[in-house]
Amino acid sequence: MDNTALELIELGAVFFSLGLLGRLAGRIGLSPIPLYLLGGLFFGTGGVVPLHGIEGFTAIAGEVGVILLLLLLGLEYSATELIDGMRRSWTAGVLDVVLNAAPGVAVALVLGWGAVGALVMGGVTYISSSGIVAKVLGDLGRLGNRETPVVLSILVFEDLVMALYLPILTAVLIGVTLVGALSAVGISVAVLAVVLVVALRYGRFVSAVVDSPDREVFLLKVLGLALLVAGFASAMQVSAAVGAFLLGIAISGSTAENAAKLLEPLRDLFAAVFFVVFGLHTDPASIPPVLGWAVVLAVATTATKLATGWWAAGRVGIGPLGRARAGAALIARGEFSIVIAGLAVTYAAVDSGVTALATTYVLLMAVIGPVAARLVEPVARWVRTRRPSAAPAPSAGN
Amino acid sequence: MNVEVTPLPGIGVRKDFALRNGRRIGVVTHRDGKIDLIVSKSDDPDACLAELPLTADEAGALANLLGAPQLVAQLREEHRDLPGIHTRQLPVGPPFDGRTLGDTALRTRTGVSVVAVMRAGQVHPSPTPDFILTAGDLMVTVGTAEGLDNAVKILKRG
After folding, report:
1. Are the beta carbons of B47 and A155 separated by less than 8 Å?
2. Average model confidence (pLDDT) for chain B?
3. Fold of A19-386
4. Predicted pLDDT of residue A388
5. Span B59-157: which CATH code?
6. Is A77 within 8 Å of A310 (Cβ atoms)?
7. Which of its termini does chain B have fewer beta carbons within 10 Å around, N or C?
8. Highest mean pLDDT pick, A14-23, A84-93, A348-357
9. What is the pLDDT of residues A165-187, one digit of tens each?
């Protein structure tokens, strides 16, 4: 059998098993992300069936997956929504950063992974999975709930934080000096500001550049522009993913909607590859040593997200049940935690335990999140009937 | 009525208002145009009892059901002093789907006047004979009791 044939068979086997895993996830009402990661562990180094020869393709496909994840995230939001969201929720957003990055930072420092490891783990535990959260809110019929705008604006804030955090992380991982890191931050703040202004005032011109009535032309133009922007951003050391995110924000209106529809299947494909590639890099044997810490992080950051949502929803006058729901909705971590940990892997600047811990953590949180969102209401009601006088404490199944 | 408009970043817009009994009712309009009807729970006003996805046709039909009686009641009030004149809403049946109001020949056959056609919650007042009907439209009609009964049969059977 020649090489191409072998590679095709391997790729086919990977995609087909991911399809089966995705179907299984749908059956049991879970996000497919943890199963994709497990798939990666299965096929990767030290896994049950190690695959060789497709690394070239999967590496670049994984990169494209990250770019598409962030591009579609940018397409989801208009510049007005981002600015509104930031204005309305910045206090909750800051609390969110402090409470949820702290456990990751603390554990990384305790494990002796240094400042860079702490920066990575802080990001991993901070960022909620907007994909999982939005899906869970839709599935549970909570889009019309009064606490839902609170949850969504916290997600918006988190995504803006990502636009600043990723360039900083990239700069630090490359190992530039403090001045270099600061200039990366300066560049990304300036670019973010310019993009928001351009998107607000001249969004229709950016949209006009990529728009086309022909689906094929449109797809090629959007994808091409996204990769170009990501590539140039990467060359300027501002993180490819952030470039794509900003492009997504700049494209607006019906163009953004059509682009999102066209790119969605591509994103699902390439993002799946990205999760598998990340799993491939993790040696299953390295998981048991960090399992304890992952559980500690899972418990701590479940509590901190609950507290964030509880407080943020309380500020706008939502009742106890709604506050508990808002907190539980935010618990899920997923794609962006992996994007952050994936960056660390790319530059190999951190302890290899970081990937193992991040994988295990996301495996736990991507499952706990949706389950907690479902269980929070019955649990909160039960707590309330048990203690009718006292304020019900937020607690969810974990 | 104070309709509250709340943006839902990445999803769409929620428009709702409080009923007299304190419950909220409204819609979530998704960015791709899909509409969910929402009704809040009685014991937890923050949460939704139901979130029903409606197609454009279904939303239109519901809007007709809610809107037409108001119009009929209003007209009835205006005609109260004229004995023998009745105002009713009549559904347009499948036989006239895609055909004109003139094709029904209601005026000639029953003496009934069509004051307005309700479609998707919109009032189309004083429709002309070349107005094209769709199944599911509601006609707001004025006539004698007998004439209206006949009109119902015509609209149903053709």
Report:
1. no
2. 85
3. Na+/H+ antiporter like fold (1.20.1530)
4. 57
5. 3.30.70.1450
6. no
7. N
8. A14-23
9. 888 888 888 776 667 767 777 77
